[in-house]
TrEMBL record:
Gene3D superfamilies: Leucine Dehydrogenase, chain A, domain 1, NAD(P)-binding Rossmann-like Domain. Transmembrane segments: none annotated. Pathway: One-carbon metabolism; tetrahydrofolate interconversion. This is Methenyltetrahydrofolate cyclohydrolase. The keyword Cell membrane does not apply. Residues 130-265 form the Tetrahydrofolate dehydrogenase/cyclohydrolase NAD(P)-binding domain. It comes from the Bacteria. Keywords: Amino-acid biosynthesis, Hydrolase, Methionine biosynthesis, Multifunctional enzyme, NADP, One-carbon metabolism, Oxidoreductase, Purine biosynthesis. One of its GO terms (cellular component) is cytosol. Residues 3-112 form the Tetrahydrofolate dehydrogenase/cyclohydrolase catalytic domain. InterPro entries: Aminoacid_DH-like_N_sf (IPR046346), NAD(P)-bd_dom_sf (IPR036291), THF_DH/CycHdrlase (IPR000672), THF_DH/CycHdrlase_cat_dom (IPR020630), THF_DH/CycHdrlase_NAD-bd_dom (IPR020631). One of its GO terms (molecular function) is methenyltetrahydrofolate cyclohydrolase activity.
Length: 267
């Protein structure tokens, strides 16, 4: 089955409007954007469109690519002062200390649950991509407890939070990176979560028949956004999320689920 992430996102928006529409219409989402990369700006526009449909005001601050770490920290603090939840759009330029910039996000306003200083006790929400992965598996009736799961990649947006949340829900998780684990582990996995940003590197020959392939890896190839899995994997997998149109739309919807939770907690 090829997952229609846009349809799942539509269902989530309808549920959000019914359950916490009033809260969302009174809430503000802050977004800090650095530079003029068209791919980054396209991701921000998607979030802005979703905010608009839910009646959420977006407080956006753009800083030039030449901005320093201190500039990013200052912008984040300004946005945080005017919003109930904050996103610092990644990636930041190489000269910026990303960890320092993310630490400027108030923990109680961290829509991406990405502040490196955030402890489990302080966590009010989970990373949107990790939540999206669980939501897709749940709505697709995939039993995850006790299943062998391989998470490829250990990034702050996909791999690390996905492994954390999947373990919490009872899966046996192996993490594979360039320096940890082996891609051979994929062949025995019931669930494969991809977040490496390596176009099409997972082929049908590498996966188990009827595995669930959750592709949250995104990169640009030939002017298009593509995933980590060869689309031909869909023919062998029991469940397959395409890129684009799979995990991405659901993850954006989860940002607004987090916004609702953070706004409620702040009351």
């Amino acid at each position: 089955m090829i997952v229609d992430g846009r349809a799942i996102a539509e269902d989530i928006y309808a549920e959000l409007e019914a359950a916490c529409g009033k809260v969302l219409r009174q809430a503000r989402l802050g977004i800090v954007v650095c530079g003029d990369d068209p791919v980054i700006h396209s991701f921000v526009r998607i979030k802005e469109r979703s905010a608009s449909r839910l009646g959420v005001e977006v407080v956006r601050e753009d800083v030039p690519r030449s901005a320093t770490t201190d500039d990013l920290i200052a912008a984040t603090k300004r946005v945080a002062g005017a919003a109930e939840a904050v996103i610092v759009q990644l990636p930041l330029p190489p000269h910026v200390d990303t960890e320092a910039a993310l630490r400027a996000i108030p923990k109680e306003k961290d829509a991406d649950a990405i502040n490196p200083a955030l402890s489990e006790e302080e966590r009010l929400v989970h990373a949107p991509v990790a939540l999206a992965i669980l939501e897709i598996l749940r709505r697709s009736n995939v039993e995850i407890r006790g299943k062998r799961t391989v998470v490829v990649g250990k990034g702050r947006l996909v791999g690390t939070p996905a492994a954390l949340l999947l373990r919490r829900h009872g899966t046996h998780v192996k993490v594979v990176t360039r320096s940890e684990g082996s891609l051979d582990d994929i062949s025995d996995a019931d669930i494969v979560v991809l977040g490496a940003g390596n176009p099409g590197f997972v082929t049908p020959q590498m996966i188990k028949k009827d595995a669930a392939i959750i592709d949250a890896g995104t990169s640009e190839s030939g002017g298009k956004v593509v995933g980590d899995a060869d689309p031909a994997c869909a023919e062998k997998a029991a469940l397959f999320t395409p890129v684009p149109g799979g995990v991405g739309p659901v993850a954006v919807a989860m940002i607004f689920k987090n916004l609702c939770a953070l706004a409620e907690a702040a009351k």
